[in-house]
Amino acid sequence: MEYDRFRLAQQTMAYVLAGGRGSRLKEMTDIRAKPAVYFGGKTRIIDFALSNAVNSGIRRIGVATQYKAHSLIRHLQRGWSFFRAERNEGLDILPASQQLNEENWYKGTADAVTQNISIIKGYEPKYILILAGDHIYKQDYSYMIEQHVESGAKVTVGCIEVPREEAKGFGVMAVDENDKILEFVEKPADPPTMPNDPTRSLASMGIYVFETDFLCELLEADARDPNSSHDFGKDIIPGLVASGDAVAHPFGRSCVMSGLERKPYWRDVGTLDAYWQANIDMTDFEPELDIYATDWPIWTYSELTAPAKFIHNEEGRRGQAVSSMVSGGCIISGSSLYRCLLFTGVKTHSYSQMEGVVALPYSEVGRRAHIKNAIIDRGVKIPPGLVVGEDPELDAKRFRRTENGICLITRKMIEELE
């Protein structure tokens, strides 16, 4: 039987789990949840999951928030308020009800859905798509929903191929030739490998499709289980795998490759090194992720800004940027940039030099500062003459320096220099 993918998407609600702290991003998530972290010059991480849903034809979305949610909620209100209730569209922001008592924090990913079952039922979706809000990728979810309906499975799990050693940080599955999941283990020390490649494993993307009525019954039963940790990866999915009711959906079947993209792109930017690398990769001549293609736009909140401006043209004091991305509202004043990514409203002053720098919105680089391989947090003002990226020991004393030599610079760290 053939199904209309667009029609199936219209019958689906997307539920985005966006409450994670993202502690491996260190001080970057001291004031914001990981899904609210800036990425790619204009967007936030959560914009990718939300854009995928909208572009796939899903117009009913819930976003569960918890940790340091203000920045995320403000972004959703500003950038994602275009849904029309009269067309049964909408985006609901669903904070954990911690104002009642401490026990009402979301206890796990499954509990984050359980606490909002009444809201989900109010939309009357036939299917529900559970999404993680903290990965960078482009995917047409309608293909995954179609596979779920055709297979008759109780759950369909989105998965991606990863090197076996990297799989230790994910939920990993073993499958047969028909995509049936035979085993699912969370963060295993000895990950199962793919049937045709012992060097690679299938890792869960944190994406699941269920029939709504079935999931609600399952979660209500899970909520009554005192031995459950109320988590999809630890409790819900392994239980369905054990009963033979789970199938896998490889990312390659539904990833969106447009423009210059040559292979499926998916990134967990959960560490400072991974975050810096994924952003800097955007400056490549042919980046692996193409955000310029218009057939799969990444929606976001776009501030009204003036165009970027480059000023001064003297030897040693020339406003220039090579192999870089510079957002609106930036002023490059007599500065030299190489392989940098600047978010909205960044200002750099005369004689400063930057290489491999990810500068978040409204940060500022003082005169004669030399910054290499760094992440500058939002609103940070780099003092004149500061040098970063040349003396590893000094950098490690003053800033958060990774093993790969990437320095995170925050306001507090700059204040402590004075």
UniProtKB/TrEMBL annotation:
<dbReference type="GO" id="GO:0005978">
    <property type="term" value="P:glycogen biosynthetic process"/>
</dbReference>
<keyword id="KW-0119">Carbohydrate metabolism</keyword>
<feature type="domain" description="Glucose-1-phosphate adenylyltransferase/Bifunctional protein GlmU-like C-terminal hexapeptide">
    <location>
        <begin position="306"/>
        <end position="409"/>
    </location>
</feature>
<dbReference type="InterPro" id="IPR005835">
    <property type="entry name" value="NTP_transferase_dom"/>
</dbReference>
<keyword id="KW-0548">Nucleotidyltransferase</keyword>
<dbReference type="InterPro" id="IPR005836">
    <property type="entry name" value="ADP_Glu_pyroP_CS"/>
</dbReference>
<comment type="function">
    <text>Involved in the biosynthesis of ADP-glucose, a building block required for the elongation reactions to produce glycogen. Catalyzes the reaction between ATP and alpha-D-glucose 1-phosphate (G1P) to produce pyrophosphate and ADP-Glc.</text>
</comment>
<feature type="binding site">
    <location>
        <position position="204"/>
    </location>
    <ligand>
        <name>alpha-D-glucose 1-phosphate</name>
    </ligand>
</feature>
<comment type="similarity">
    <text>Belongs to the bacterial/plant glucose-1-phosphate adenylyltransferase family.</text>
</comment>
<keyword id="KW-0321">Glycogen metabolism</keyword>
<dbReference type="Pfam" id="PF24894">
    <property type="entry name" value="Hexapep_GlmU"/>
</dbReference>
<dbReference type="InterPro" id="IPR056818">
    <property type="entry name" value="GlmU/GlgC-like_hexapep"/>
</dbReference>
<comment type="subunit">
    <text>Homotetramer.</text>
</comment>
<dbReference type="InterPro" id="IPR011004">
    <property type="entry name" value="Trimer_LpxA-like_sf"/>
</dbReference>
<comment type="pathway">
    <text>Glycan biosynthesis; glycogen biosynthesis.</text>
</comment>
<dbReference type="Pfam" id="PF00483">
    <property type="entry name" value="NTP_transferase"/>
</dbReference>
<keyword id="KW-0067">ATP-binding</keyword>
<feature type="binding site">
    <location>
        <position position="106"/>
    </location>
    <ligand>
        <name>alpha-D-glucose 1-phosphate</name>
    </ligand>
</feature>
<dbReference type="InterPro" id="IPR029044">
    <property type="entry name" value="Nucleotide-diphossugar_trans"/>
</dbReference>
<dbReference type="GO" id="GO:0005524">
    <property type="term" value="F:ATP binding"/>
</dbReference>
<keyword id="KW-0320">Glycogen biosynthesis</keyword>
<protein>
    <recommendedName>
        <fullName>Glucose-1-phosphate adenylyltransferase</fullName>
        <ecNumber>2.7.7.27</ecNumber>
    </recommendedName>
</protein>
<dbReference type="InterPro" id="IPR011831">
    <property type="entry name" value="ADP-Glc_PPase"/>
</dbReference>
<feature type="site" description="Could play a key role in the communication between the regulatory and the substrate sites">
    <location>
        <position position="66"/>
    </location>
</feature>
<feature type="binding site">
    <location>
        <begin position="186"/>
        <end position="187"/>
    </location>
    <ligand>
        <name>alpha-D-glucose 1-phosphate</name>
    </ligand>
</feature>
<dbReference type="InterPro" id="IPR023049">
    <property type="entry name" value="GlgC_bac"/>
</dbReference>
<feature type="binding site">
    <location>
        <position position="171"/>
    </location>
    <ligand>
        <name>alpha-D-glucose 1-phosphate</name>
    </ligand>
</feature>
<keyword id="KW-0808">Transferase</keyword>
<keyword id="KW-0547">Nucleotide-binding</keyword>
<dbReference type="GO" id="GO:0008878">
    <property type="term" value="F:glucose-1-phosphate adenylyltransferase activity"/>
</dbReference>
<feature type="site" description="Could play a key role in the communication between the regulatory and the substrate sites">
    <location>
        <position position="105"/>
    </location>
</feature>
<feature type="domain" description="Nucleotidyl transferase">
    <location>
        <begin position="15"/>
        <end position="283"/>
    </location>
</feature>
